[in-house]
Amino acid sequence: MRPNRLREIWASGGAAVNGWLAIPNGFSAETMAHQGWDTLTIDMQHGVVDYQAMVSMLQAISTTATVPVVRVPWLEPGVIMKTLDAGAYGVICPMVNTREDAQKLVAYTHYAPRGTRSFGPVRALLYGGADYPAHANDTIVTFAMIETAQALDNLDAIMGVEGLDAVYIGPSDLSLSLGCRPVFDGLDPKAQQAVDHILERAKAHGIMAGIHNGAPESALARIAAGFQFVTVSSDARLMAAGAQQLLQAMRAGAPASGPAPASDSY
């Protein structure tokens, strides 16, 4: 079976830099994958990516060594299993709030006897190889999102579930749940304390911790703190930022004479 480079990065003590895909398009996913991200996560929870778009995006990522990860819409067995059958090598599941939630997630992402995943790895065989069924349980990476006050209360119970590989912090939802501003970086003190606590407990349980970031400086600081999976921005945000920077540069270099461009167009 094709190795999971994410597991290899972790085994070497490194941290994976993850890109985020919100645009439902194979070409944009392929373009992102060719930039050298360690992993790329297709976001099916928020935004406009549906299942068919996800499949084309997984196929596009497959043209590179980048590891394909999917954030599924919810803790629902059907979509999780279909996502794995399509060739995802990692699953990030939102709103895992209890030990029972974590147990269900592990069950849905593992074949028997470790879980209840139904057999039918249609595209996963093409991506992973003919021996995929024998090694999938040890290759796929399962992330539980920790993003509520309830999850914080049940943190050790969640992290103690056998077969859970990692937790992933959604800073905005976690902040909202704690009565703080919903931001990625520069968290309010209460939310930052929660993030520090999650990281500390993940280390104690021997599982990996990931987190979403807005800026590379925040991601680097969090790697230094011990996070081993950091997301930076998203394809849509990067495209908008790049376009804005280009337009600002062009406007700044426009000749002094002649009509000034309109504020909302060039």
TrEMBL record:
Keywords: Lyase, Metal-binding. This is HpcH/HpaI aldolase/citrate lyase family protein. Pfam families: HpcH_HpaI. Residues 20-239 form the HpcH/HpaI aldolase/citrate lyase domain. Belongs to the HpcH/HpaI aldolase family. It comes from the Bacteria. InterPro entries: Aldolase/citrate-lyase_domain, HpcH-HpaI_aldolase, Pyrv/PenolPyrv_kinase-like_dom, Pyrv_kinase-like_dom_sf. Signal peptide: none annotated. GO terms for molecular function: lyase activity.
